[in-house]
Design a protein that fits this description.
alpha+beta; 9 helices; 17% strand
């Protein structure tokens, strides 16, 4: 076991009374959170394209045997630059929630990250970094450097009701069958193809499982084209705003516990692109409401659409394995991702552990023009419960 991964971790709840709120939360305290779409902005099925072209449409065979197209191995110079920036940030005594491009400067690597941000938003939508030295640096310094990279791609948004902006994908022994209460990232269960409540998601591998836990991704625009050709009836069902998504109790006072929405949307304005929002665990967990007559149950057409979507993704997907020190960044606008079920090593070996970032890219800074009221907000999306502030714990809670 690497010594750096068993170090004693600084407390995520440390008090920083000598720092101003702007230093602790440079992008503001609250994430905009989960909201229904602006229904008057939603487009009818007839307004959607008959097909999608461009760099967001890709096939697995385009990349399976061409890692040079989507893998970047950190150079020694890049690692030194990240290391020096991380050491300087730690020495300054600023909490992780206060990290920003201003206090984590990467004069050379920032140029690459700017191009990667554009590729995530407008290109193929994914990148795999290799060679991030987590075993040498340990969890704390690795988290600093990882979040520092994230500041060049977007703004941190909360990933759960606790306000976590540094998430931990780790099996905590929770019951994955209780899908109305349990978030699947806290279990070892399979995660079906889905998108997250952010514009970009990042995953840094700290420790691998004994077996399983492998990653699959698919171009949502290639999926759209295939469904349009093979199952236009399914595509029509996915476009209609008849889908309810569970919020699993992560709601602020006075908010509804579910959201009515679509799966496929069109952007606002001219040259609108197709956007996807999907997670079957959040769609299938609503029986407690449908049994009370509060919302309609899933129709036979919806149940079939969910099955066809998953099966088609499985057929079209690009498979990858994240090794220790790998970082995967994905677009949530036009890429779906999944994870296989996994089994951890027996103690005392570390459990599978990934550090997760959810990043927002507002439309005023090149982000997609989404049919939601918060599309222009800096910290759009995510999960916000009441006034809970952001925190960045260094292990799962």
């Amino acid at each position: 076991m690497a010594p750096g991964l068993t170090e004693s971790l600084p407390s995520a709840q440390r008090q920083f009374s000598d720092l101003s709120p702007a230093a602790i939360f440079p992008d503001g305290i609250k994430t905009s959170g989960q909201h229904p779409p602006l229904y008057h902005e939603l487009c009818a099925v007839e307004e959607f394209p008959h097909g999608i072209t461009g760099p967001t449409v890709w096939k697995a065979e385009d990349y399976t045997y061409h890692p040079e197209r989507w893998v970047h191995s950190f150079t020694e110079e890049e690692i030194v630059e990240m290391s020096e920036a991380a050491d300087g940030f730690i020495d300054a005594g600023i909490p992780l929630t206060g990290i920003s491009k201003d206090n984590f400067q990467l004069p050379r690597l920032s140029t690459l990250l700017q191009s990667i941000r554009s590729e995530l938003l407008n290109g193929k939508g994914f990148i795999l970094f290799k060679g991030f030295p987590v075993e040498k640096w340990g969890v704390h310094k690795s988290a600093v450097a990882y979040m520092g990279l994230g500041t060049y791609l977007g703004y941190f948004v909360s990933q759960n009701e606790r306000g976590h902006v540094l998430g931990h994908v780790k099996d905590l022994g929770e019951d994955a069958k209780q899908i109305d209460k349990v978030r699947i990232y806290r279990t070892n269960a399979r995660q079906f193809y889905h998108t997250d409540d952010s514009d970009i998601v990042g995953l840094l591998c700290i420790a691998r499982a004994l077996e399983g836990g492998e990653s699959d991704i698919v171009s949502a625009h290639h999926l759209y084209n295939v469904l349009h050709k093979e199952r236009p009836d399914v595509l029509k069902t996915l476009i209609e705003p008849v889908w309810y998504f569970d919020r699993k109790g992560e709601v602020s006072q006075g908010e509804e516990p579910y959201i009515r929405t679509s799966v496929f949307y069109l952007e606002k304005g001219a040259n609108a692109r197709v956007y996807i929002k999907w997670d079957p665990y959040y769609v299938r967990s609503l029986t407690r409401f449908s049994e009370q007559g509060l919302i309609p149950p899933l129709s036979p057409a919806q149940l079939e659409a969910a099955e066809v979507l998953e099966a088609t993704c499985n057929r079209l997907s690009l498979h990858m394995i994240l090794d220790v020190g790998d970082i995967q960044f994905l677009s949530n606008e036009h890429v779906l991702h999944a994870r296989t079920e996994y089994k951890d090593h027996a103690p005392p070996a570390p459990r599978r552990h990934l550090l997760r970032l959810w990043l927002a890219t507002p439309e005023g800074e090149g982000g997609w023009r989404l049919p939601f009221h918060d599309s222009a907000e800096k910290k759009r999306g995510g999960i916000q419960v009441n006034n809970n502030p952001p925190i960045a714990p260094l292990d799962a809670q």
